[in-house]
Amino acid sequence: MKIEKISWQGIDAVLLETKVYEAIIVPSVGANLVKLYNKELDIDILRTPTAEEMETFLNRPQIFGVPLLFPPNRIEDGKYTYAGTEYQYPITIPAQNNYHHGIIKSQPFTITRTRISDDAAEVEASFFSNKVNNDIFLDFPHDFVCKMRFILTDNELTHIVTFCNNSAKSMPLGVGYHTPILLPFSKNTDKSDYKLRLSAGKRWELSERGLPTGNLLNLSDEESLLRTEGMAVTGKPIEIALTDEALIDNEKPYHGAILTNTKDNISVYYEVDSQFKHWTLWNNGGEVDWVCPEPQTWAINAPNLNLPKNITGFQTVESGKSWSGTTRFYVK
User: Where are the transmembrane segments (predicted)?
Assistant: First the structure.
């Protein structure tokens, strides 16, 4: 087991290493997990920026590694109201007049804890939002701490995000990840060898602005393959919003994505806990070497949807309380 501060692509990073896995975290860019490598199988799981892509990574970290979204996806007109407070964000998609993804993905985190045991290497990175460190506070006036724990073993990487509400009032909470998983991830394979399974239930009908209309639709015949043998996710554009519903894997309920190299029967598992009730599946037009199964705690534009919270996933964290969500990566 090893934890080491390193210089990676010219910036400070933290390396975690076990006998089987290697992970790299960049604290200064949203504590992004930019690399996860299985040494035994020679598999890079995530899209990792090359030296030539570093400028793009610094400007658009959401298409590399495991970027944290807060809030996830779009907010209509960049605003919503909760408990008498109007939350107003800048418009980041002018053509749709929407705000999207938040900026915590670009904010500098601080390493607040490291720990090595016989079977794990663990790093905690924290971000403090308040009136002094106010890049987020200006639009989201809550004093909070975001902690991300990365626990690497020979079997998996466990990623736990925690939000602690230190403000005096209830805090809306929508969290997600914009996770580009490589395909092909195995040597001597082609993109056509890969199929994706996903714990998708219903599909949200989306407007031309990429916002849910409020209607939940059955999966199409092709989309239903996500729940069974797997769907091809290259060669054509995919951008769909989905609810989460357990699929069966190895005779057990499973929540998450499974990207399988059907040639060698090797799968990357991206498992989520019950906090993540929604997905966006996106492939940037279908001609890239990655696909994003994006877990979200709430639906796109959840604060503005006139639907019950148990459908939209809208939730809050009370003053003095905290919330946590867990995801895991492993290869089988």
Answer: none
